């Protein structure tokens, strides 16, 4: 089996998630190839893949524009391969925060659904499987302005605000299960 894993990222966390997906596949004897859609590439040999996975991060309520353009251009191939979608957003961290009030968790989950629905609308692609994944606060990677803005947003959301370090909210076991459930069963 051969799987293509496409990703778009700003600070690199979605790349880490895509690499984890590819590593999980390889550990199970699958050939997995990674593609950063923000970099120019040679033509993709779509016929050589049995399935695919698309991973994109969210910034200011929208998925990476490069991924939206990539999916629009390649929608037919992604549909033919019954490709899966991984949406990486900090809102998912709020949705899975067991310490948060139920109303806050529900509001965060609604945000996650809206962002995924917007991606589907923007691209015209309905993924076969979708996994919302909590991203990371990469304070150390942000410029001064972005760090300031995200610290304010984090404070309002009850997230960590110590900008001297990064915070990873990803549920890595959920990513591993998704590989088994969505990609290996394709």
Q: Describe it for me?
A:
The protein folds into two domains: 2-135 and 170-183, Rossmann fold; 138-169, no CATH class. The strands form two sheets. Strands 1, 2, 3, 4, 5 and 6 form a six-stranded mixed beta sheet that branches. The chain is α/β, with parallel strands linked by helices. The chain is globular. The mean pLDDT is 92. Helix 1 crosses helix 6 (172-183). It is built from six helices and eight strands, in the order E-H-E-E-E-H-E-H-H-E-E-H-E-H. 35% of the residues are buried. Helix 1 links the parallel strand 1 and strand 2 (31-36).
What class do helices, strands and sheet pairing give?
Answer: alpha/beta
Shape: globular
Q: What's the domain count?
A: 2
Share of residues in strands: 15-25%
Helix tally?
6
Number of strands: 8
CATH structural class of the largest domain: Alpha Beta
Overall pLDDT, averaged? 92
In CATH, what is the homologous superfamily of the largest domain? Flavodoxin domain
Distance between the termini: 10 Å
> CATH architecture of the largest domain, please?
3-Layer(aba) Sandwich
Order of helices and strands: EHEEEHEHHEEHEH
Round the Cα radius of gyration to an integer and report it.
16 Å
Properties at a glance:
186 residues; Rossmann fold; 2 domains; six-stranded mixed beta sheet; 6 helices; 22% strand; globular
Fold topology:
Layout: E1 2-8, H1 13-27, E2 31-36, E3 51-59, E4 62-63, H2 65-80, E5 84-89, H3 90-95, H4 102-123, E6 129-134, E7 136-137, H5 144-157, E8 167-168, H6 172-183
Parallel strand pairs: 1-2, 1-3, 3-5, 5-6
Antiparallel strand pairs: 3-4, 7-8
